[in-house]
Amino acid sequence: MNKSFNRILYTVLVFLLGMSVAFYWVKKQRTTPHTYDKFRDLIYYIDHYYVDTVNHEQLTEHAIRGMLEHLDPHSTYSDAEENKTQTEQLEGAFEGIGVQFNIMNDTIMVVAAIAGGPSEKAGIRAGDRIIIVDGESVASVGITNEQVFKRLRGQKGTHVKIGVLRPKVTGVLDFEIIRDVIPTHSVPSAYMMNDHTGYIKIDQFGSHTADEFAEALKKLLSKGMQKLILDLRGNAGGYLDAALKIADHFLPQGALILSVKGLHVKPEKFHATSKGLFQEGELIVLIDEFSASASEIVAGAIQDNDRGTIVGRRSFGKGLVQRPFDFADGSQVRLTVSRYYTPSGRSIQRYYKDGTSAYYEDLYKRIIEEDDATPANTDTVPLVAYRTKSGRIVYGGGGITPDMIVPHEKRIHSEAYYQALNNTALIQFAFNYATQNKAMLTKTYPSAEAFIKKMNVKEAILQEYLKFYTEKSGHRIPLLHPEESAALKTWLKALIGRNLYQDEAFYPVLNLMDEVIRELGIKN
Fold it and tell me: Nearest CA to 411 among 518, 311, 515, 494?
């Protein structure tokens, strides 16, 4: 009897204790200002008291985007359509104009024009601000990523007219772009600049980049390459795995490529393997202010291991790693889960606590003000020095600072020259000339190599273009000095070559007057 009574009493006490704990927990949840509870309560108030009916799905979308904006500039949300588009850019073909962009201060800023895509062929460049689309202003109207996709993407063969503001160019530049299938290759150019120097350009780090790069590297090595120029300018990044595989080609087995650390993730270190195809030859890596993320991982690994020379302008400064989390409706949040560190231990992430708009505005100011020096010391971000494998000092906190800085080309030309260069008439004239003279040109220059070496744009062709330009623009024929005439002839040759032999003839010609490559003293 006593034992039975004791068991019953014990059970009752345990039950009461459990109820007390549960009551305390519920009370605490109600009285503690948790964000989730506030959000739930707000939805309740809106449902029961708001003056009009609301769309819960849209409210949720806005709330998610708003929360992420207050975390960091690279934690982002994509609805199902945006997510599909972004995946296609790295993994498969899609139709549109071919630009990577950010919305900065309520304006669409081009981060990169995809190599070989309609926008790049039309003359759109990184740093352009799109302010007009098909006659309508898209600046300062609260445009969203989804709205940008709807305006710029479209069926192959359809046209879109855009107006852009370009740094250091007066007025709005008008472009008419014919939408097309966007190329999925990420290595648009690989060729021998001379008997021993190779050049490879990577414009993004996609799912096929490592294979494309290895194929290009093998081709150049078979031609006797001893020195490589790896061009990562304008490359906004992509897949981490692709960056690791590219860096692996240059570093000896066991060399540290990257470290990753985060509050809720296990620290990781990534080292080079024995699979590298170019561990001994001379290496030069080109970067600029639009080289970000995966590009900076490669450049940082090369710099900190003293494997090669970094040349150009200070890189973007993105040292945050995002992990995708998928929702049931096809949407996705890319949440920053860790920071990556170069082999010397530095984070190259720029300061972002003043908000996303200020973060991207800082980039635009760097373009305008030609800020190519070491990241500045500030009250909020102290300048921290690190050392490479050989003991050289490098800095964290503001991108990768090149070993050899080459500032933007100074504005030494006339306004008339820049107008003639940046007008869409240049693209149209080159297309017309290549089409009308294709039989003669391909007979005279039967290969891209022959075109590059032997074709020269004569003065008569330049004057023909200038006449065409004045008819299209309404401007007077510009009076150009010899250097300006030579530059326009090079542009015409590159664009005519692209129409005949695609990028195989475009980049080699354009690189002849590239200010960074000229600083390297590469002789053909």
Answer: 515
Q: What is the largest CA-CA distance in the chain?
A: 118
The DSSP annotation for 170-187 comes to: -SEEEEEEE-EEPP--S-
Q: Evaluate whether 115 touches 183 at the Cβ level (below 8 Å).
A: yes
Q: Is 293 a catalytic residue?
A: yes
Distance, CA of 493 to CA of 433 (rounded, Å): 11
| Residue 225, SS3 per DSSP | coil
The DSSP 8-state label assigned to residue 52 in this structure reads S
| pLDDT recorded at residue 90 | 59
Phi, psi of 175 (to 5 degrees): -135, 140
Beta pairing class for 197-201 and 227-231 = parallel
Catalytically annotated residue among 78, 186, 291, 293: 293
Assigned token pair, 344: 């010397």
Is 365 in the active site? no
Which residue of the set 180, 248, 304, 503 is catalytic? 304
C-alpha radius of gyration, the chain, whole number:
28
- Torsion-angle region of 29 (φ positive above 0: left; ψ -120 to 50: alpha; else: beta): alpha
Supply the pTM of this predicted model.
Answer: 0.81
Residues 6+ apart with CB under 8 A from 55: none
Contact 271, 257 (CB under 8 A): yes
Q: What is the pLDDT of residues 9-18, one digit of tens each?
A: 445 444 444 4
> Which residues 6+ apart lie within 8 Å of 89 measured at CB?
100, 114, 182, 204, 206
What pLDDT, on a 0 to 100 scale, did the predictor assign at position 455?
97
255 and 343 in contact (C-beta within 8 Å)? yes
Ordered DSSP codes for 119-143: HHHHT--TT-EEEEETTEE-SSS--
Q: Which H or E run contains 111?
A: strand 107-113
Dist CA 503 CA 115 (whole Å): 9
The active-site residue out of 121, 227, 245, 318 is: 318
Strand residue runs (E) in 180-243: 180-181, 189-192, 197-201, 227-231
Lowest mean pLDDT among 149-153, 193-197, 218-222, 289-293: 149-153
Token pair listed for 304? 């900190």
Closest of 88, 90, 98 to residue 126, by C-alpha: 98
Question: Taking phi first (over 0 means left), then psi (-120 to 50 degrees means alpha), and beta for anything else, what does residue 474 get?
Answer: left
Taking the C-alpha atoms of residue 292 and residue 285, their distance in angstroms, rounded to an integer, is 13
| pLDDT above 90 (res 496) | yes
108 vs 512: CA distance, rounded Å = 31
* Contacts of residue 443, Cβ cutoff 8 Å, sequence gap at least 6: none
Residue with tokens 């971000």: 381
Residue 374: the pLDDT is 53
349: CB partners within 8 A, 6+ apart: 317, 318, 319, 320, 339, 397
Cα gap 498→122, rounded to integer Å? 12
